[in-house]
Amino acid sequence: MGKVIVVTSGKGGVGKTTSTAALGAALAQTGKRVVLIDFDVGLRNLDLVMGAERRVVFDLVNVTQGAAKLSQALIRDKRIETLFLLPASQTRDKDALTEEGVANVIRPLKEKFDYVLCDSPAGIERGAQLAMRFADDAVIVTNPEVSSVRDSDRIIGLLDSKTVKAERGERVNKHVLVTRYDLARAARGEMLTIDDVLEILSTPLLGIIPESQGVLRASNVGSPVTLAEPSNPAARAYIEAARRLEGEEVPMQIPTDKRGFLDRLLGRRAA
Amino acid sequence: MTSAARIRKDRAAPVQKKSIRFPARSFLAFALSPEAPLDEWLKALDGWTENSPGFFAGRPVVLDLAELKPEPETIRSLVDLLGERGIRVYAIEGVAAEQLTPDMPPLLTGAKPGAIDVSTVEPADEAPVPPEEPAALTTLLVNQPVRSGQSIFHPKGDVIVMGSVGSGSEIMAGGSVHVYGALRGRVFAGATGDGNARIFCLKNEAELLAIDGWYRTAEDMDQSSRGGPVQVFLDNGVIWVTPL
């Protein structure tokens, strides 16, 4: 039986889709069977980030409404054979999804895959609630700034009340993933520190992903950053976070601006 | 600077502004759930009130239309028919908000079932009041942080939170509120009219603190009372926020 993990945040633009792709690719590279589901119906992005946008025939809404079979809609990644994508519809919107339809999609996927990663849309309404409804675990993506942290706190509250697991009296395992972390700005007090974020959210930390220009470069070429630039500090942090998701104990490192002597001399900036 | 302005500037103690109070009221209402066919139900109701005349006079009655699912015109005529029988409908539940027009009783959501001992109810000679539930004081213990957007309502006693209270959340208690963590949200203690209720927290970052309807917002709190453990109490219409 696979694990359903929802990647959510509340706030928009903090890195849910990037993280879903990066974590999914990192998990699949260790040999696990992984499927990524884009729940952002109407504003789909996961297919772009995965480089599959030219191969989309059927989507999540087609499958939930019975117009297509799951096997017809799933797109296999060209680079990793155990990684699959179920894209969202671009022409419909979130009202096209029903709870029963989503349940009928997640159930067979849970049986066939080790990890089912659900890329949640932003917000707290129907789309986000359906994405988290059947989750076993949750990765709450947070930027170290006040509005993102407050929205993440709201989403954590919803994870504890609106999921099937919560209604049964069990707990969804929650992890905070801090993204776009800039050590210099945190030191200057412009950004919240990791301690501030964890103190407000009271949830275990999965990883700290530093701000990196490699993320944009990777999504421009349609590849998760862990595949496109695996030695990039953000990619390395995602790979460590994926290992922690699998249960491995990996010591947390606050990413530093690792600039070599020559780089400093010649004024070059790290990735 | 005029002398009046100088006096204002010299005032050291924070002054409680003349603010609007929000005391809470709770009461038990009877719920009538009409079933189809409607005239048979009305006949049965008439039979019942014949045995206990004036029973409904002065009692709050809520109309539960979830079973009947009527048209808007039927709702209006039903309210009128009940009015002719001396039954004033306070609120309607079980219908969509769009079906009720401003001239009809308001929509009620979230009402919980209550216990009314009908056998001890006196027929209406004096104005009878439905017997209140016995005041069993209980303490609500919340063993995890209160997340942003969550709302805790516990009119029957104290609330204790073993954790922080997130920004944008609310706690309303009939008694006192104790937060063993950072308080970043809003707290209404003594919400059912108890001016002796107090609020305690380990780190005051509250957005609003209120006791028995008197409130103080974060803006009106002295900087010295922010960020550390505080106790909040009501004295003579003034909310005091004092370091513990």
Brief account:
Chain A is an alpha/beta fold and 271 residues long. Chain A is built from 14 helices and 8 strands. In chain A, helix 1 (16-29) crosses helix 13 (233-245).
Helix content of chain B: 10-25%
Q: Strands of the biggest beta sheet of chain B: in what spatial order?
A: 4-6-8-10-13-14
H/E element string of chain B? HEHEHEEEEEEEEEEEE
- Secondary structural class of chain B: alpha/beta
Q: Which percent range describes the beta-strand content of chain B?
A: 25-35%
Strand order within the widest beta sheet of chain A: 3-4-2-5-1-6-7-8
* Largest interface summary: A-B, 13 and 14 residues
Strand content of chain A: 15-25%
Count of distinct strands of chain A: 8
What's the assembly state of these chains?
A: heterodimer
Helix proportion of residues of chain A, in percent? 40-55%
SSE run of chain A = EHEHHHEEHEHEHHEHHEHHHH
Let me know the average pLDDT of chain A.
92
Through-space gap between termini of chain B: 37 Å
